[in-house]
Design a protein that fits this description.
311 residues, alpha/beta, Rossmann fold, four-stranded antiparallel sheet, 11 helices
Length: 311
């Protein structure tokens, strides 16, 4: 559905996209991740022909995307991170207006507007002004305005920022429902658990390049961390920490003397936890709670980029 080949975008000396290659297949929920400044926003703006790129090619639905590709753009819905609605219009008027930018037939536009209101769960708020809505409802209105014309491709940029858990779940369920109805989704988020929950494939960008791609499980197999052991309330000497570091399959040990928390990262092997507990028993070390965790998408991101994913 989308093919970006060797796309280069420069801002003076800064290379925002460095021969970026991306392929997004029809029917995917495609996660686009990267630290701030990695090129995500630039890539999406180039995809939409809102930015002119220096080299490369971009095709959408098999056609070259240009600034005047209006027929292509009618098949795309964009939900920006910043809420973009009119404060002087009601919920229903906002959705009707944005739908009308793409759908000229009044009967069909009315049907689509009603479907978007139902989809976003805004039936009881249709006559309210946006400033009267909670943060979660305002986000749902933002999504309804972006998808009311029933696009083939939906781009969602941080759609759950600063919303309550109930609204977040409603939004994620809605995204999956859009996908089941036939829309291909491009999804960016700083919440790794959301990406794990809904994305069928993920690409991680850094310095304008794709540095890793695959399903969640495929990405997890790319990293060294296979198990993370957390122990609370433990007092350790420097010699004991060195002993833990020397254990088989242990490659990273972090100890916070202030909180008495120990974090041990291990490569793939059986009995990592048993070996660690046996060592502590031999050393006569007491401790509190013990947790063993399989790798998460956040572990993948940190190991591959070396950076925290932050807003």
């Amino acid at each position: 559905m989308i093919h970006m080949e060797n796309v280069v975008k420069r801002y003076g000396e800064l290379v925002a996209l460095d021969h970026l290659n991306l392929d997004i297949r029809e029917g995917e929920v495609f996660g686009l991740l990267g630290p701030n400044g990695s090129g995500k926003t630039t890539a999406m703006n180039c995809l939409l022909a809102l930015l002119k790129y220096d080299k490369g090619s971009i095709t959408v639905f098999g056609q070259e995307m240009r600034p005047d590709s209006y027929e292509l753009k009618r098949q795309i819905g964009v939900v920006p991170q910043e809420v973009a609605v009119f404060d002087q219009m009601t919920v229903q008027e906002n959705i009707d207006y944005f739908c009308g930018l793409y759908v000229k037939d009044k009967t069909r536009r009315k049907e689509y507007t009603e479907e978007a209101i139902r989809f976003a769960g805004l039936e009881d708020y249709r006559k309210m002004l946006p400033r009267k809505l909670s943060g979660g409802l305002l986000r749902r209105l933002n999504i309804a305005c972006g998808i009311a014309h029933q696009p083939r491709l939906v781009i969602l940029d941080e759609p759950t920022v600063a919303v309550d858990p109930q609204s977040r779940n409603r939004i994620l369920e809605g995204i999956l429902e859009l996908n089941r109805k036939g829309s291909t989704i491009i999804y960016t988020s700083h919440y790794m658990e959301e990406v794990e929950q809904i994305c069928s494939r993920i690409v991680i960008l850094d310095h304008g390049r794709s540095i890793a791609s695959g399903t969640t499980e495929e990405l997890k197999r790319m990293i060294r961390t296979a198990e993370t052991i957390l122990i609370e309330g433990i007092v350790l000497s420097p010699e004991q920490l060195s002993g833990i570091q020397a254990l088989k399959h242990v490659f990273q040990v972090d100890y916070d003397r202030g909180t008495l928390h120990l974090t041990v990262k291990c490569t793939s092997a059986t009995h990592n936890l048993i070996r660690l507990l046996h060592f502590l028993e031999e050393e006569g070390v007491s401790f509190g709670q013990v947790y063993s965790q399989l790798p998460t998408l956040n572990d993948v991101f940190l190991e591959i980029t070396g950076k925290e994913l932050r807003d």
